[in-house]
User: Fold this.
Amino acid sequence: MPHPISRRRFFASAAAAITGGGVAARAVGQAKPSRNDLIHDQDIVDITNQELDNLYSVGNRELPSALPVDPERNHFPRIEKGKIYSPPPPLMGKQMGRVISPGIPPLGYEMDGDVKVFKLIAQPIEIEITDGFTEHTYSLLNSTGPYRPFSYRPTVKKTMLAWGFNGSCPGPTLEATEGDTVRIVVKNELPQPTSIHWHGFELPFSQDGASGYFPWNAHRPILPGQTREYQFTLHQSGTLMYHTGFNMMVQEGMGLAGNFVVHPRKPEHKIDRDFAIMLQQWFFIPGNEAPNVVQMEAKIATFNGLTLPKLPMLQVNQYDRVRIRFGNLSLKMHPIHLHGYSFEVVGTTGGPLQPSARYKEATVAIHPGQTRDIEFVAWNPGTWRMHCHVLHHTMNMMPNAPMGIMPPEGMFTWVNVKPRDPQYDPRSNTAPWKFEGNKYNNL
Ligand SMILES: [Cu+2]
Assistant:
């Protein structure tokens, strides 16, 4: 005869049966739903005597043991504490080009004759995606709006065990000029083979860097501890990328990627502020610091591996000509939107667009494996939002924004256009505003 029992009590008893054996299981049969159970537990399930017997016998069965863990082998993808990783090469942090990659130190080069030599060390690294809200962040929020009643959702510190280059994930933006011959010395300090593919480059097959599908590849991968050099001449310009060419779903998922900007030999015009941003996404199983690389529905989306408040905003002066380059090595498309401007899409992974092919937009879609360059003259002062318009990527899939106040995380930052007149306050409703967008058509 079935015994009615509330779902909560059923599960509580089942758990007790597994741990406590027969005594607890017998108690299940005597349970009668109380009024409180009926109020709080909507579902009443019927349990047959047979099910009760099954519960009873659980305590006598041998429970499965924990999965065996071999600390020698199961360190992936953690940093091996006993291993010494190379410090960033001496030219890491030296700004030798023009491109600013917000949040990522630049990488300079050395000359070997006529060859520009870059050094990349592929290694496991621990990065802090965000350092979380601080007292300072709260004070800013409270001074700029009546947020107090809405209990703003705090951002917590989030670290990630990733794979990157020279202590940075994504890797530093490489920068060279059309016509240069470049040599990239890649050392592999990862626990598995790797290689670097030069994404979008017109180069000799032997330098393409894709490995893993023998025998059609020109090269074997770089084994752990080994170093190899790639060398080629740049016959094109534009925003290109580099990423792993071995075991890609794992290695690109772990972050082995970076931008590679090739400036044209004869630029059409001067660019005052030139930025590069890598779009990536990460899925974390709760409690894990290493991203899960098979999950497409990522939980955290980043610009250059960071989210606010750690991700810096893009600082420009009014009337600067601004270029922003986006590279996408995530698994999803990101439509990046900028407030306050219609920018021009001026370049792709294939290089600068000819003037007739450029187009005005306020949102540019960047698909996986693509880069897009946008350009505008910063005539309109203000601290303008720039973010992915897939809202799950804007706010890291946390839909609990109170009263529409969006948590500024995910692919979200600001382009701060500082007014030429320091007294001018763009936030004031009465600040004199002049439309100047028409002056800067046809960049
Ligand atoms: Cu997106």
About this structure: The radius of gyration is 28 Å. Residues 301, 334, 388, 390, 393, 411 surround copper (II) ion (CB under 6 Å). Helices lie at 7-20, 22-30, 35-40, 49-58, 135-144, 248-253, 391-394.
